[in-house]
Every structure is written in C-alpha cells, then in structure tokens.
Amino acid sequence: MKPLAQSVVGNGLAPLHMASQGDHVDAARILLYHRASVDEVTVDYLTALHVAAHCGHVRVAKLLLDRKADPNARALNGFTPLHIACKKNRIKVVELLLKHGASIEATTESGLTPLHVASFMGCMNIVIYLLQHEANPDVPTVRGETPLHLAARANQTDIIRILLRNGAQVDARAREQQTPLHIASRLGNVDIVMLLLQHGAAVDSTTKDLYTALHIAGKEGQEEVKYLVGRRIMDHIDTVHLIERFWRKRQESLARPAMVAAVLLEHGASLTATTKKGFTPLHLAAKYGNMKVAKLVLQRDAPVDAQGKNGVTPLHVASHYDHQNVALLLLDKGASPHATAKNGHTPLHIAARKNQMDIATTLLEYGAKANAESKAGFTPLHLSSQEGHTDMSTLLIEHQADTNHKAKNGLTPLHLCAQEDRVNVAAILVKNGAQVESITKAGYTPLHVASHFGQGNMVRFLLQQGGDVKASTNIGYTPLHQASQQGHTTIVNLLLENAAQPNSVTSEVTLSVTGPCGINRRVHQVPVGAAARAQGTRFDVCAEID
Questions:
Q1: Domain 443-526's class?
Q2: Which long-range contacts (CB under 8 A, 24 or more apart) does 504-512 make?
Q3: pTM score, whole prediction
Q4: Domain-by-domain residue ranges, the chain?
Q5: Fewer CB atoms < 10 Å away: N or C end of the chain?
Q6: Pair 342, 536: CB distance under 8 Å
Q7: 438-466 pLDDT tens trace
Q8: pLDDT at position 260, please?
Q9: Is 532:502 a contact under the CB 8 Å cutoff?
C-alpha cells in the first residue's frame, strides 16, 4: 500500500505534482520527508519536475533536483523537463536543469531536441543559451527537419538569424528533400527568404518531386495552411496555441508569393526548372490561379507554352482549374489555344470536359477550334456530350462544332451520350442535326450502345427519334442482341414492343445459339463496350495536371 504522501487521483497526479504546480516548496519538502516518490508519474508519465518546469517554478524544481529527481525523465511523448521548459520559455528552469545534468540533445518520440522546441516557439534567450552550451543546430527529427526548418515553419526570422550565425546548415534537407528555403517560400515570408539566400541557400534546390522554391512560391502558400492547422508539427504543443501562433504570424507577415518570387528571381531562380511532371513555375502559378507570380515570370520571358511531360501547357492547367484571369493573361502573352497534350487534347477539350464555361468562351474568342481532334479523333463536343454538359455542348455547337463528327473508331457525340444516358444533351445534338443512325466502323448505332449499357431513357428517346430497332452491325448484331447479351430485360421488352425481331441471327458461324434470346450464353463479349470506351474518351489528361 502506498504512503498517503503518494496517493493519486484518476489522472495520476500525486500530492507532490500538486505542490509543484502551485510552487509550494514547504509542502513539497514535507511530502518528500514522508517518503513521497520524487519521480512519481501521471498517466502521461509526467513527473513533478515536468510540472515545475511547465509552470516555471525554479524553487520547487531545485528542491526536486536536490532530492535526486531525474532531469531526463521522459513523458509519454518523449518530452523531458527541459523540452517543456523550452516550450514554455522558462529560461531560469532551463539553466537549472542543465546545471543538474539534463541532456541538451535529448529527443522526443518524433526526434525533437530542446533546440527544435525553442526554435519553433521563438524563445530567443533559450535558443542562445542552448547554442552557448553546444546544442547541435543540425540534429534532424524523424522527418529530417532541423531547428532551422521548424523556425522557418513558424516564421521565426530572428531565430533563423541566430541559428545561421551559429553554423546551422542553410540547405539542410528534410525527408522529402525540402530545405528551409522551400518552407519559407511556401509561407510567403520574404524576410526569411532573403535571409536564407544571403547565407548561401541554393535558389534552385529541388524537393523530391523536383519543386524549386520558385515553383512553390507560385502555389501561394495555401497547402501550408492546411498542413499546419491539420497537423501538430510538434509533440504536445496545444493545437489551439499552434493555430493562434500561426495566424498571428500569418497576419504579421501575410503570404506574399509575388514578392518571394521576385527575390528568388533576383537571385537567379530558373524560369524553366521542371517538377517530376515537367511543370515550370508558370504551370504552378496557373494551377493555383496566382496572377501576380504569373505576371512576374512572364515579364521575365518565361516560356508561355512550356509543355509538361504529358504535353500540357500552362493554358491547359489554367483551363482545368477554371482560372480565367490567368488564362486571359496567358492568351494575351501569346499562349496558343491550339496547343495539344500528348493525347491531342487542347485546352478547349479540358474546358469542355470540366464544364468551364467562361474559360471555353474565352478560348473560342481567341480562336480555339471547336472541331479540334484528339489523337483518337475526339472533339470537345464528344467530351461535353459524354459528361452531359448541356450549356457547354450548346456553346460548342454555336461555334460550328460538328454534331456528326466521327472519332477514328467511328463514335459520334451521340454515341457517347447513349453510353452515359445523357438524354438532355442528346436532344440538343439531334435538334442540331445529329444523325440517329450514325454508325461506327464496326456498324454500331447509338441505339446499339444504349441497349448494351442498359440505358432505358436513351433507348426510348432514340426510338422516338426514329432509331432503327432492326439495325445490324457488320457481323449482324442488332440492339436486341446487345440488350440480351447483357441481360437488360427492360430493354429487351422495350425493343420487342417496338418490332425488334426475336429470331434475327448474326453472321457469326461459331455460335451454337445465334438468336438474340440465346446470346447470353456466348463465351466472349460483343465489342461495343470496348468501342464505346475506346482509348481517348476517358484518357485523364486532368490527372496529369492534379
């Protein structure tokens, strides 16, 4: 049974913890006299010395240390009393702990040293004191971050200056090869960017994904907001405190990506450096809608039609993300509205698929071709039809888009509508001359496609528009064959009600049962599915942009 002096409450706090919290030296002395354990821990493995360090109570801390309290006791997250004193800016406690043997290089579970903590929290006097006592400024955390990285994350300009003066490596690399310059550029802190460059930071140093600081400046810092608020950088730093500190610093030094970009360019940052996806800084400015950075790099003759690894230009990117102002800027600076990605998609293809009306209107005003073909022969109207975008399809038709344009496999926009049951767009296409009986190279009509995919509404629409229920492909398949093959009973009944022939046969001689009602027993599939989903209709050039 524990002595009364060591009795604890539910969270593990012993009387000695309470006395330490209140700086009650005499009470603590009495408890120790009555055999209270000097290193008794709470459920979080906090000792009375942790508590005294947190509160900055030097007298109680000295008493505990004189009674052989462990100066290197580790809490559940690995924080020692020294870490906590650094976090709370308790310089007197820091001095006391180091005099009593506290390890200056002790690390938490995530690899934080006391210097990491003091640097992030902006505790100038403690940082100086730790460095004077030979704290290593280049110790990496588990994620590879040095105190300099954390000071950059917290916008601690003065701390960074002290660390650099004491030999911190300016281009230290974290796990994803990020340097402090990358971090400062992301946060838009011009003073820190300039300070790092003055100390020799490599302006074109790249991350794991080959991002330079200039690429990152074009992203306007929004990802860092999400990162900092959504994740606690340091163990045991209160989330509320972190958010308050971050936003206070954010207000003091708002993200100024254009100013950062200007500083980087003055120090020779490359306008043509590319990420793993082949993106230049202009691509990144287009992706994030950063007009100021886009203007700045264009003023310095950044290549306006630079292509990523899959051929996408900044205009493709701006079109994908619906950044009309950037798109206008690019077009005014000579960007080609006809530029094609490796699959042949133009910016108009992307705008059509994404239903970016304003971008599409702008592109058409600058001469984009409504009938531009991808490598597979698909036009923007094919894509808007497949996605069911009525206004976009109407806009393209108003600019002379061909409603009967055939891709290389013969698919028209109406075929793709039939595949996806886009009746509203199909009505617009038919009203503007789309042929209901248009056939692919293999002889499939839109009714074949709708029957194959079980699109009841589309089957009814096509029949109402005069779709031929008896139309047959090159090898004799009717819409009834397609519906029967896929087991679409509702479509089968609908077709039969409209005079489909249940005994029509294909020209294939390998089938043991060739009538529509027996087609389900076929070993292989009728190729309409592959035809309707042919390469190019669903090629995701947008995935290369994201």
A1: mainly alpha
A2: 504/470, 504/472, 504/476, 504/478, 504/480, 505/476, 506/472, 506/475, 506/476, 506/477, 506/481, 507/475, 507/476, 508/475, 508/476
A3: 0.74
A4: 1-103, 140-302, 304-433+536-546, 443-526
A5: N
A6: no
A7: 999 999 999 999 999 999 999 999 999 99
A8: 85
A9: no
Rounded Cα gap, residues 346 and 340, in angstroms: 5
SS3 for 228-240 is HHHCCCCCCCCHH
Q: How far apart are CA 222 and CA 234, in angstroms?
A: 20
Please check whether residue 83 is in contact with residue 108, taking contact to mean a CB–CB distance below 8 angstroms. yes
Query: 6 phi and psi, to 5 degrees?
Result: -110, 10
CA–CA distance, 54 with 2 (Å, rounded to integer): 26
* CATH match of 140-302 with 2.40.128.490: no
Take residue 329 and report the two structure tokens written for it: 């800027």
Residue 339 has pLDDT above 70, yes or no: yes
Q: Which two tokens stand for residue 197?
A: 């460059």
Quickly state the pLDDT bin for 218 (edges 50, 70, 90).
confident
* CA 448 and chain centroid, separation: 40
Write down the CATH superfamily of domain 304-433+536-546. Ankyrin repeat-containing domain (1.25.40.20)
Count Cα neighbours of 392 within 13 Å in the Cβ-side half-sphere.
Answer: 26
Compute the distance between CA of residue 15 and CA of residue 363 in angstroms, rounded to an integer. 74
Reference 385, options 396, 372, 398; nearest CA is 396
Half-sphere exposure of 226 (CA within 13 A, CB side): 5
Domain 1-103 in CATH 1.25.40.20? The answer is yes
